[in-house]
Amino acid sequence: MIILGLTGSIGMGKSATATLFRDEGVPVYDADAAVHQLYQKDGAAVDPVEAAFPGVKVEGAIDRTLLRERVLNDTAAMKQLESIVHPLAGAAQQDFREAARKSGAAFAVLDIPLLYETGGSGYCDYVLVVTAPPEVQRDRVLSRPGVTAETFEAILARQVPDAEKRAKADFILSTAHGFEFAHDHVRAIVALMNRKAVGDNA
C-alpha cells in the first residue's frame, strides 16, 4: 500500500483537499482529528496534558484555546506538549494504516499539518504540498474566529516555510484557482497512485 503524505501551512486549503481525496474513496488519516479525540473527555492525552499544564482541563476535556495560550510562544512548553501527544497520535496513525491495509486500499493519505516539522515525511512514499499565495493564506486565516495577526505569525513561525515545503514535495496543488481546479488535480493524483500501486504489486 502506497502512503501519500498531505501537508501545507495554515490557511492553504489542506483540509479541503483531504476532503476531496475522501470523496474519491481514498482512506485519509486526519492528524488534527486524532489529536482532538485525544483531548476530548476520557481521551488518552487529557490527564498527562493537565498534569503538565494545570488548568487546561475543563469539564473533563482539554480546552484547546487555553492550551494554545500556554504553549504557542513558549518553545520549551511546546516541546513538552509534543512529547506527550506525538506518541499517542502515532499509535492512532498506526491503527489507521493497519485498517487501510486490511481493507485492500491501493494507497492511503496521511493528512498531517506538521509533516515536515516532525519528520513524518520519511514514512511516506510521496508528499503532496497544498499551497496558495501569501495574501490568500493570510485573508483565510484572519477570517477565522478568534485568530489575530499575532497568533497567525506565531503559528507560521513554527512551520517550515511554504517555499521550502514546495521544494521538497513530490506534488504541489494550489487552492487559489477554485474548487474544480483542485478537484481535477486530486483526481489525477488518485489515478497516478492507483497505477503505481498496481505496478508495485505486479
UniProtKB/TrEMBL annotation:
List, alphabetically, the Gene3D superfamilies matched: P-loop containing nucleotide triphosphate hydrolases
Name a GO CC annotation attached to this entry: cytoplasm
Q: Which GO terms describe its biological process?
A: coenzyme A biosynthetic process
InterPro entries in the cross-refs: Depp_CoAkinase, P-loop_NTPase
A GO molecular function assigned to this protein is: ATP binding
The protein's matches in NCBIfam families, at most eight in alphabetical order, are given as: dephospho-CoA kinase
**Which HAMAP family does the UniProt record give?**
Dephospho_CoA_kinase
- Protein's name in the database: Dephospho-CoA kinase
| Origin organism lineage | Bacteria, Pseudomonadati, Pseudomonadota, Alphaproteobacteria, Hyphomonadales
Protein's gene: coaE
